[in-house]
Design a protein that fits this description.
seven-stranded mixed sheet; binds S-adenosylmethionine; about 20% strand
């Protein structure tokens, strides 16, 4: 069939293809979200192809030898955290922040089951509360990867706090850059979260401290490299 542009069916087929070809999961990742949902956690983790993408980005960080220090805001069940933890260099650490104690407890067990708990530090609390303390502990220019995946209208606030801790060459990654229960081409003013993400995307794209791009997989993954 000719390439006559994107259709809803083609988008679904493309997403399924990306998960099949690039998102293969081992026994620790496969079924993790099903188990989490059965325990009452929401079904809002990244897809497996996005997880794999996060792992590859983490491996490419730290001057190409893997991130030494990564921060994730929004742990949920630990699904994306396992992918990131597997991309760290030997001795690397992922600091992951989760507001809901129930989610954090589930994720801690998932990190233990997946054999990555030794390189993951769980912080329970709100991103805007935990980040200032964490950034103070880590120190300036110490972080290689930051994944934002918690409260969408707070992404700008997370970035403001974490920015001094990001070293030159580090990666800022923002999930839901194009959509969640809204989509980026909805009219401005139709959803505060859409408008906040639009403003965040435009702010990072125009920020002279970053070189930014966005990959439209799943709900959009924005990536910005700090100069
Ligand atoms: C989209 S989910 C994260 C998904 C996870 N990154 C994954 O892909 O496996 C968002 C998570 O952020 C948590 N959260 C909500 N408000 C938060 C806040 N203010 N600070 C940190 N986490 C928050 C929610 O409880 C939820 O577990």
């Amino acid at each position: 069939m000719a390439n006559d542009g994107m259709t809803p069916a083609r988008w679904r087929n493309t997403s399924a293809y990306l998960q099949e070809v690039f998102g293969s999961e081992d026994e620790h990742l496969a079924g993790l979200m099903e188990r989490a949902i059965a325990e009452g956690l929401p079904d809002i983790a990244v897809s497996s192809d996005v997880g794999r993408f996060l792992q590859v980005l983490t491996m490419m960080a730290g001057d190409g030898t893997g991130a030494r220090v990564a921060i994730e805001v929004g742990t949920l069940a630990g699904y994306s955290g396992i992918w990131i933890a597997r991309g760290l260099r030997q001795g690397g650490v992922l600091h992951t922040i989760e507001y809901e104690p129930k989610h954090a407890a589930f994720a801690q067990r998932a990190f233990e089951d997946a054999g990555v708990a030794d390189r993951v530090r769980m912080h329970v609390g709100a991103g805007l509360d935990v980040l200032p303390r964490l950034v103070g502990e880590l120190g300036p220019a110490s972080v290689d990867v930051v994944l934002l995946d918690a409260v969408k209208p707070e992404y700008g606030g997370y970035l403001e706090i974490v920015r001094p801790a990001m070293r030159s060459g580090s990666l800022l990654i923002a999930d839901n850059a194009l959509g969640a229960n809204w989509w980026i081409d909805d009219p401005a003013g139709s959803d505060p979260a859409r408008d906040a993400m639009d403003a965040f995307n435009r702010m990072v794209a125009a920020d002279p401290a970053f070189d930014a791009a966005c990959v439209p997989i799943r709900e959009g993954v924005m990536i910005a490299r700090k100069r």
